[in-house]
Design goal:
Number of domains: 1
CATH topology: TIM Barrel
Shape: globular
Strand content: 5-15%
Strand order of the largest sheet: 11-10-9-8-7-6-3-2-12
Oligomer: single chain
Distance between the termini: 28 Å
Largest sheet: 9 strands, parallel
CATH class: Alpha Beta
Number of strands: 13
CATH architecture: Alpha-Beta Barrel
């Protein structure tokens, strides 16, 4: 989960992150690169003149992705936007305070061509009496797991019609440090919202940024105690998105044993690792080392997928395009796109449009197969077993140059 309007966003570790963070571009440019950044390669940064407003308007409806459409028009990458049609990591409510009204959000999705979205409640809701919107502005204020956001999301999805949008409701209440009542609480969801919640997460295994708000990380012992609720998710084919910091700049793999244990303990569950384990606390990891760890875990765990949401990825690691782009292409069936936008009431359409564009910047440089799998949603449809399909990608028109990354150290 990211800040609803924080000035200090962090870099996106994977070229796929959001721009809509309110941090000035000059600050991003001055952020120190990893010490071992390659001397040659790609910088995924755009010309500063490029803005989300410059993207061509979307023309795909929700219905156009239906499997019932036997002859879908091919997707013209030269004329249609490169931003993802799936936002698999979206928070419609902030940690506290007012949210953007649902009908306004639906209009934003429609204008940007987002046809599929995961509604992640903020599982760690700030104390209602605090008046806080963002946890880092209120150190010491408890941010603890709760069902509040999930229930509001469920009510709003029913109350406000959205014929051109597929919303997947997600259960975010589960306290991974104290999971004893989780399976029982899912029964409450079944009674109140029968058949409506098809995802779980974003759940925090280890999120260093929340430690100042009394958040308690999971442990090896508590992970073992997940078994009852993980069985429910497994039996229902419900994916779970886990925020599990890989480490920090002082020790880049400090918390890797936690995720290794999760994967060893629950190999049958569909697990999505949010942000590829990267975070504000880990901005200078050697990209080759990071990708090697990701490859190892993906190869050993066929039910693991990676989420490349959050501007932390892009801002911190866009100079590592020569490492990440080949990885995305080679493992394109294992990656989901998302913005990690937090819909606090003080945000505007331009904030979301920018975040969606920045977290999609790597997508514009992928090969056609990877673009179809990630940006056009094929991975998401397959994971969710939805009756939708990504359209084929049109051959690139002759005489039209394909987008290419800037030489490292460029824009």
């Amino acid at each position: 989960m990211r800040s609803p309007g924080r000035k200090h966003c962090v870099s996106l570790a994977v070229l796929a992150a959001l721009t809509a963070c309110s941090r000035p571009a000059t600050q991003v440019a001055q952020a120190p690169p990893p010490a071992s950044a390659p001397a040659t390669g790609y910088d995924l940064a755009f010309d500063p003149a490029t803005r989300s407003a410059d993207l061509p308007p979307p023309k795909r409806s929700l219905e156009s992705f239906s499997k019932a459409n036997k002859n879908p028009d091919c997707f013209d990458r030269a004329k249609e936007p490169y931003t993802s049609v799936v936002d698999a990591h979206f928070h419609p409510r902030p940690f506290g305070g007012p949210a953007i009204p649902p009908e306004e959000l639906y209009a934003w999705f429609d204008k940007l061509g987002v046809r599929f979205v995961n509604y992640f409640g903020i599982g760690q809701v700030l104390d209602l009496k605090s008046g806080c919107t963002y946890y880092l502005d209120c150190k010491g204020t408890p941010a603890l797991p709760s069902i509040k956001n999930d229930f509001v999301n469920g009510m709003e999805v029913v109350a406000y019609k959205h014929p051109n949008l597929h919303i997947a409701l997600s259960m975010t209440f589960i306290d991974l440090a104290h999971p004893e009542t989780a399976a029982k609480t899912i029964e409450l969801y079944d009674r109140e919202f029968p058949g409506m919640f098809s995802w779980s997460g974003e759940l925090n295994v280890e999120k260093q940024a929340l430690l100042g708000n009394l958040a308690e990380p999971a442990t090896i012992k508590s992970i073992d105690a997940w078994a009852p609720f993980m069985k429910v998710l497994r039996d229902r084919n419900i994916p779970v998105t886990l925020h599990s910091d890989l480490g920090n700049d002082a020790n880049p793999t400090e918390f890797l044993p936690l995720m290794r244990h999760v994967l060893q303990k629950y190999p049958g569950n569909k697990i999505v690792w949010a942000h590829m384990g990267l975070s504000k606390e880990l901005q200078h990891m050697d990209a080759n080392r990071h990708v090697a760890i990701m490859k190892e875990l993906l190869d050993a765990n066929p039910n693991l997928m990676l989420d490349i949401s959050w501007d932390v990825l892009y801002n911190a690691y866009h100079e590592w395009g020569a490492v990440f782009l080949p990885f995305f292409n080679a493992y394109s069936t294992r990656i989901l796109a998302g913005s990690d936008f937090v819909a606090a009431g003080n945000k505007k359409f331009s904030n979301y449009a920018n975040e969606l564009e920045v977290t999609s910047r790597a997508l514009r440089l992928l090969d056609d197969e990877a673009f179809r799998n990630i940006a056009l949603g094929e991975n998401y449809f397959r994971l969710m077993r939805l009756d939708y399909q990504a359209p084929p990608v049109c051959p690139w028109p002759e005489g039209v140059p394909r987008p290419a990354p800037f030489p490292q150290g460029g824009a």
